[in-house]
Every structure is written in structure tokens, then in C-alpha cells.
TrEMBL record:
It comes from Nibrella viscosa. This is 4-hydroxy-3-methylbut-2-enyl diphosphate reductase. It comes from the Bacteria. InterPro entries: LytB/IspH (IPR003451). Pathway: Isoprenoid biosynthesis; isopentenyl diphosphate biosynthesis via DXP pathway; isopentenyl diphosphate from 1-deoxy-D-xylulose 5-phosphate: step 6/6; Isoprenoid biosynthesis; dimethylallyl diphosphate biosynthesis; dimethylallyl diphosphate from (2E)-4-hydroxy-3-methylbutenyl diphosphate: step 1/1. The keyword Oxidoreductase applies.
Amino acid sequence: MKSFNIPDYYRSTIVSPLKELRRKRDKLKRDFSPTLLDFGPVQILLARHFGFCYGVENAIEIAYKAISENPKKRIFLLSEMIHNPEVNGDLLSRGVRFLMDTAGRQLVPWEELTQDDIVIIPAFGTTLETQQKLSAIGLDVERYNTTCPFVEKVWNKANQIGQKAYTVVVHGKPTHEETRATFSHSKEAAPTVVVKDLAQAQRLAKYITGELPREQFFQEFNGQYSEGFDPARDLQRIGVVNQTTMLASDTQGIADYLKQVMIQTYTLLPDEVERRFANTRDTLCYATNDNQDATYELLTNKADFAIVAGGYNSSNTSHIVELCEEKLPTYFIESEQKILTPTLIRHFDLHQREEVVTENYLPTHEPATILLTCGASCPDAVVEGILLKLVSFFPNARSLATVMTDIQQSYSA
Ligand code: SF4
């Protein structure tokens, strides 16, 4: 895979070489088992896949290039480039400004922009409406467009099934930048509706079967359907695509469910299913799949707790947290600074949507076993900081050099 030129301070002298070691040993990605860092009184199990993906590295490379190529110009990012506070903070410190927040609220009025400005499109892509606004100002929207090719792949898939007269059902978070962008592109080719989860897919099914009156649809799916959408007409042939960072099992569950609804509603024989339900397979990206599969494998190991690092508004990271929470105590943190002391950790509670402090998170027994991973937008340097902070609480821990040598020997054996 292409390698990108990103600032060294996002890399790690511990984590990045370990990833490379595992990658070289397993180029076909068949081994999803974690890497054990055995420090003696504390053992860290590092997931096989995590951290910066293709799309994120591509976006970071382009953003820093935009800064270095335009020292005298005002540089704007449409919104957070990726959902990571370290990366966004660093860009802000270099004078980059956000035009919108993650919910799409305007921070800098469009009227303030001139054709001399530089605007960077984030990895999630953007809506056609925003692209048109920028072009109307005279801005070049392609020059620093960091839209991930895996997001564009979803747009293409939506387009393809739209051309075959299917309605597009997008499984995604309705307010997430990527889903808003996908919705915007999809609606050009097909009637489009967004469902956020299985419960909403089940509600949508009631309009497919005609159990609920069409008028109620407009209220229930307010803001989630394309203009002119008619549930009586537009739910007779459907296909499902998804925001690239959803939980694979959730998307599969929704697609399987809606397929069954179509089969039962229209009494379809197996070879007739495609008449009503497009075969899209899931449109998750490779990084989401790899990270989720590596998390499942990580969770087959017994441990005292898990730490998941990443931005609190990162969709792919939140799903990894959800998977871990099902199995063991899990702390979702932005960086090692949230590990306050050996007895206190400040972490994000996904359900209350706020940071909370937990006491006595480290076990009293030794060895303590900790699962460690992060989302696709989190730098390796952040994971390194967390790892070193945890190990620092164990004065009798083996040295990092010894642990790294052991690992290198075990993988070259
Ligand atoms: S998570 Fe996937 S879709 Fe999103 S930026 Fe990374 S590679 Fe692209």
C-alpha cells in the first residue's frame, strides 16, 4: 500500500516498528492475534490492527502540504479533518481554521471566503451543495480534496444501484459528516433514506409492508430522506450502503433484515430477490474491517481491562469501544493525559456522552493484563504515550529494550 509523508511526531518508535514487524510477517493479513508486550508485572496486549488508515494518512499528507505550499494564504478546513483532537489541534496551531463544526454548524460565514483562500475538504468528503458554494466563490475544490477513496467507493456504489432504479438505504449516523456527504451524492442518483440502526430499519420496514401510513414516514424520518421521497413508491426496490465506519455486524444485520422483509412482502423465490433487493455486500472500508476483526481477536484473551484511544466523536473508535465494553471494563481516552494516577483515570462514557473519573482501575494482582487499541484516526504516538504511562506505574517492570528484543526474536523465529 502507498506510504505517505506525515509528520514524524505522529509516529512512534515503539508502536510503528511493531506494526511493521507484524505486517512483514503477515502480508496477507491472516493473523489477527495481538502482540504481547510482556513487561513482567504488567502485560500489554496490543491489537494487530489499529491506528492511521490509508484515508487518514492521505488526508494528513495533503493538509500539511497545503500549509507548506501556501504560507501567505488563509487556510480553512471545511470541518475537523479527521476525528482526532491531536491532529486537529496541531492544524489549528498552524493557523488553519475550521469553517464548520462536526454537526455542520457554520463557524466562519461563507461570505468571508475569497477566491484567494485555500479550503481543504476532509477525509469524510463533503456534500455537493457545499462543493457548489465553494466553486461559486471561485475556490478550487479539487486541489486539496482529501476525500478518502473508500468513501468515494460508497458514493459510486450508491450511484450504480440508483441507476438500476433501486432506492438507496444508507446505514449511518444521520448527522455524521460522511453520512451527510454520502446522502448528498446518493440523492443525485436515487431516492435515498438514512437509517441509523436496526431499530430504525425495523420502522422503515413498516412502510415497506404498508403497515404504517405514508404520512407518518415524513415525520418519523424527518431530515433523513431525499426531496420528493415517496415511501409508497420508493420502497419497492432497495439496496443498502453504509457509512464506512459502522459496525460490520450491524450493517449486515440491517441488510439481512431488510432483504427478508422484501422477500416476505413480495413472496420472492431465491432467484427473484434481486428484483427487489440490490446485492451490494457491505461497503465498510478495509481499515474498519481490519480494526474490528483485530478487536474481536484481542477480546478472546483474558484481561483486566481495555483501553481504547481516540477522539470521542470518532465513529469507528466508538464501535471498537462498544465491542470491548461487552466483554470487560473499558476506558475510552483521548491520550495518556487522561490516565491521571495509578488509581484514577478520566475517560469518556459513550452512553452519558461525557467524561467520568473511575477509581482503582488497575488491578491489585500481578501481572495486570491490559488490552490496548485505538481507532483509525489516532496517531501511533498517542498509543505509545498510553503504553509508557501504564508501564511507569510498575517500578519492577522489565525494560522496554528487553521487551522489544523478545518480540523481535519471537517473530523472527
Ligand atoms: S476509516 Fe476507511 S473510509 Fe475512513 S478514512 Fe480511513 S480508510 Fe478511509
